[in-house]
Amino acid sequence: MRLHRAPGALLTTDCAANPVLGAQVNLVGTLNVFEAARSAGITRIAYASSAGVFAPGDGGQQPITHYGAFKLACERARHGVGRHQRQHRLSAR
After folding, report:
1. CB of 42 within 8 A of CB of 2?
2. Is the dihedral of CA 61, 64, 68, 69 positive or negative?
3. pTM for the whole thing?
4. Which residues contact 57 (CB under 8 A, 6 or more apart)?
5. Angle at CA 80, nearest 5°, toward 63 and 65?
6. Are 50 and 71 in contact (CB under 8 A)?
7. Is the pLDDT of residue 53 over 70?
């Protein structure tokens, strides 16, 4: 088992203040982990997402913050990349 934790993750207020950096750290950083796992032959990945992917109340997956949007993009990328690279990924919120 290998574990990756993103200690430098930028949360909601940081992403609002600097959306480009937020995307680089949260979205591109997650994609880099997926690619590193693929290169190392790792076929199963579990990673953390966020309840921030949901709108308040019963709004479904419609984030209202940059952070939530980046986390939802990670989840969606997981499906596309996993399908093409035959990796199994599990996100937890």
Report:
1. yes
2. positive
3. 0.78
4. none
5. 15
6. yes
7. yes
